[in-house]
Amino acid sequence: MKTVTVKMKNHGSFSFCLDEAIAPKATARMLQMIEKKKYDGKEIERLEPGFVIQPLFQDGVDAEIDVMVEPEYETIPENHAKQFVRGTVAMAGDGKEASGSQFFVTLARHERLDGKFTVIGEITAGWDEIERLETVEVEELIDEPSGFKYHKPVTAEIVESVTVA
After folding, report:
1. At 29, phi and psi to the nearest 5?
2. Radius of gyration over alpha carbons of the chain, in Å?
3. How many domains does the chain have?
4. DSSP for the chain?
5. pLDDT tens-digit series, residues 12-69
């Protein structure tokens, strides 16, 4: 398995393994995004304490970021069976399609996510950084025009780099 490391600017890092066997398309897409440095310099756009950390919302500008892909949780039984526990890494989505760029890390067990998002791996190192991020001050925002409410760090949390080994 490949290991992805997310280095935060002026802070620590966290790492997760990519499970290519249960999400070959999603992990291949993530590796392309990493190779093209699409995550580097981006903010943690969504941070829901006790729920998820999610960098890089779709931006409406970069066509390589704003891509949806086949949700492998629907086509690969081993992926569908994965439980969302603290440290699960998965691709975001809208319930019909999976994002080809946005990933999230769960901060606790969330049964309501089981079988609804493509799991790509799990956190293997850097829990201190995950815990630091979980405690930063956030503000509630509303995405227009959808009305979707979410929380974002008040002080920008920047992804310095994402690498794979």
Report:
1. -65, -45
2. 15
3. 1
4. -EEEEEEETTS-EEEEEE-TTT-HHHHHHHHHHHHTTSSTT-BEEEEETTTEEEE----SS-TTTS-EE--HHHH-HHHHT----TTEEEEEE-SSSEEEEEEEEESS--GGGTTTS-EEEEEEE-HHHHHHHHTS-EEEEEETTTTEEEEEESS--BEEEEEE-
5. 999 999 999 999 999 999 999 999 999 999 999 999 999 999 987 666 667 677 677 7
pTM to 2 decimal places: 0.92
pLDDT bin (cut points 50, 70, 90) of residue 75 is confident
Q: Cα-flanking dihedrals φ and ψ of residue 157, to 5°?
A: -105, 110
**Exposed/middle/buried for residue 139 (C-beta within 10 Å: 0-12, 13-18, 19+):** exposed
- Name the residue range of residue 95's domain: 2-164
Which CATH number does the domain housing residue 35 bear? Answer: 2.40.100.10
Q: Could you give the CA distance from residue 67 to residue 78 in angstroms, rounded to a whole number?
A: 24
Residue 61 phi, psi (nearest 5)? -120, -50
